[in-house]
Amino acid sequence: MPSLKHVCVFCGSSMGAKPAYAQAAEALGRLLAQRGLGLVYGGGDVGLMGVLARAALAAGGEVTGVIPEALQKMEGVGHLELTNLHVVGSMHDRKALMAELSDAFIALPGGIGTLEELFEVWTWGQLGLHPKPLGFLDVDGYYDHLHAFLDHSQAQGFLRDRHRAMAAVESDPATLLARLDAYQPPAIVQIIARDTA
After folding, report:
1. How many domains does one find in the chain?
2. Which pLDDT score, from 0 to 100, does residue 197 have?
3. Which of 21, 92, 120, 154 could connect to 159 by a Cys-Cys bridge, CB 3.0–4.6 Å?
4. Range of the domain at 138
């Protein structure tokens, strides 16, 4: 996968209610390492974040964590064995650096923090601030209700077809990575010139 080098993964700092979520995080971490893709993530050693990072490290992968100082103190230093650990001043700094370091973005199951992170980079892509692909690893139907809402938003005229198509949705991590690697961004300059909805 020559065009992708580092993939940012957003996911829960909790384990969630189903073992399938941790299994998917482990599988994705291992797959990234096997493909030679560096993992960029939130830097913690808790919940799915910890499972993801440990799996990538165990498979010999490069893992970069980005964590705000306040969370580092709350959660502990996280993985001392990370390839790189960036301690930043704020959540805003964290998201900006994660975006800068990454070539693509994936959301595993998670809560409002995970959604906020993915939706922000999705919005940045819609506005032409970056051309990077993004997607949902939809484990065991976790995101079904969210995508039903997005269908509703699209039907009501608040989400354009081309912007909806920017986010890939797959249940298999290898298939999702292939779609992200093949992504072709829309004609951003033309989009900004005509509309920003």
Report:
1. 1
2. 47
3. 154
4. 6-194
Query: Within a 10 A sphere around the Cβ of 115, how many other Cβ atoms?
Result: 14
In a domain, 1, yes or no: no
**Model confidence over 27-73: pLDDT tens digits?**
999 999 999 999 999 998 899 999 999 999 999 999 999 999 888 87
- The widest CA-to-CA distance across the chain, in whole angstroms, is 48
Query: pLDDT per residue over 141-192, tens digit each?
Result: 999 999 999 999 999 999 999 999 999 999 999 999 999 999 988 765 444 4
| DSSP, res 140 | G
Question: What CATH number does the domain containing 156 carry?
Answer: 3.40.50.450
Task: Give residues with Cβ within 8 angstroms of 129, minimum separation 6.
Answer: none
Q: What is the pTM of this model?
A: 0.91
* Integer angstrom CA distances of residue 80 from 35, 44, 45, 65, 123: 23, 10, 10, 10, 33
- DSSP output for 83-116: SEEEEESSHHHHHHHHHHH-SEEEE-S--HHHHH
